[in-house]
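Appendix B, Record 12. Input sequence as logged:
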Amino acid sequence: MITVSIYGEDPWTVPPSGKKIERPITGPLPKAVSIVTSNLIYIEKDKLPPALINRLTRLAAFQNPEFYKAQAMRLPTFGKPRVIGCAEDYPKYIGLPRGCLDDIEELLKGLKVKLKMRDERYQGVTIDAVFNGELNPFQQAAVKALLAHDNGILSATTAFGKAVAATWIIAARKVNTLVLVHRK
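Logged structural output:
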């Protein structure tokens, strides 16, 4: 009996997550990379080797759960991409979602490439907002953690008071705010 493993000859060498270990990026790397933070993170790509451009692009890609759900139920997967990529390819730049910034910094730091960052984000319009309420201790901890950063996600259970916490943050930052809510 012959057994073939998708992991090669040594399945015990695969990390517990099942993710492949990335190959090292070869080729001449620039000493520094320019990044502009705006609606996306724009990374100058003219001096980047193709392997690094590929790795940066994959930072903004994830497996499509709808594809795998349909596949598991033996339903057609036509028209459902296996992987969803959120990177944008421009002539001189790669555009990645702003949530990828920490991963970009970690990747480039590991390659000993310095970052030249320029912030071109829209700062918003100052508003006069006052919060007339009280936060419970859990909400206070959440807003304190969120205010320490420029962006973030508040994920909490039903009835946590996410809208109340968000209203408090809007009043604390005193800037016009776009609120996106899932349609369901």
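The two ends are 52 Å apart (CA to CA).
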